[in-house]
Amino acid sequence: MALPEVVSRDEWLAARKSLLAREKEAVRARDALNAQRRMLPMVRVEQRYAFEGPGGPVGLAELFDGRRQLIVQHVMFHPDWDEACPSCTAGVDEISRGLIDHLGARETAFALVSRAPYRKLAGYAAERGWFVPWYSSQGGDFNLDYGVTLDPLAGQIEYNYTPREDLVTPGETAEMPGFSSFLKDGDEIFHTYSTYARGGEYLGSAYSLLDLTALGRQELWEEPKGRYHKARAAVPSFDE
After folding, report:
1. What is the C-alpha to C-alpha distance for residues 110 and 138, in angstroms, rounded to an integer?
2. pLDDT for 227
3. Exposed, middle or buried by CB within 10 Å (0-12, 13-18, 19+), for 79?
4. Where are the beta strands (DSSP E) in the chain?
5. Which residues are 52's β-sheet partners?
6. What CA–CA distance (Å, rounded) separates 138 from 206?
7. CATH number of the domain that 42 lies in?
8. Does a structural domain hold residue 3?
9. Which residues of the chain have pLDDT under 70?
10. What range defines the domain where residue 17 resides?
């Protein structure tokens, strides 16, 4: 096994400070990228999507659970499968109640959506001990419209904003992972962001998920100004 070089404490400290400078550059670059994400324009959701969840049939508005924002994790679960994809399963396994509570404190709901019928979702969730609300979009266009079901017959072969015919077997459909963010303003719902492929692999903390939303972490230091959560305004935060 190739191990790090052994050096004196002073040499290690010099190297660590040099790396810290690079780490701070990366944090500033990430903050700038997150600000650009919050400044993206948004698209009004005109279609009436239908889902089936724990309480029966619902629309997209109900997935917000009374909050201003919604993050959807698109979990790969084809209607013909008996289990969700192992990678998506591992990600959901790591979700804690604390994470959901912290998102809720920032007026943000979190839900899972898959194309498999709800009875399969409910059974799988029970086996895994999952508590995150999980909804079936079977029979609707939600997965197609938000780029996580590829279906050549429906004209949808794009994944991560790029045509990917190679991901689809002729005559079949393909399920892909991703996250989508939505904002509710009054009775209107807007799509603000979606990320796919490796765009979701660093998600898992409340902050990293909030960074995918239009309102962000809702801290005073964030750009653009005016989107902070008033209940958090007096709490100090570090900007790097």
Report:
1. 19
2. 66
3. middle
4. 43-44, 50-53, 56-59, 69-74, 108-114, 134-136, 149-150, 158-159, 162-163, 174-175, 178-185, 188-196
5. 57, 136
6. 28
7. 3.40.30.10
8. no
9. 227-240
10. 9-232
Instruction: Convert the pLDDT of each residue in 64-79 to its tens digit.
Output: 999 999 999 999 999 9
Q: What is the pLDDT of residue 234?
A: 45
What is the bridge-based pairing of β-strands 69-74 and 108-114? parallel
Residue 74 in tokens: 């698109």
Residue whose pair of structure tokens reads 């997150």 in the numeric block:
34
Tokens 């807007």 correspond to 190
Q: Measured between alpha carbons, how far is 141 from 46 in angstroms, rounded to an integer?
A: 12
Distance CA 107, CA 207 (A): 13
Q: How many domains does the chain have?
A: 1
Tell me, yes or no, whether 237 lies in a domain: no
The tokens of 234 are what?
């007096």
8 Å CB contact between 227 and 38: yes
The answer to whether the beta carbons of residues 215 and 202 sit under 8 Å apart is no
Q: What is the pTM of this model?
A: 0.88
pLDDT in the model for residue 204: 76
Residues found in the chain? 240
Per-residue model confidence (pLDDT) at position 99:
93
The residue type of 226 is: G
Give a yes or no: residue 2 inside a domain: no
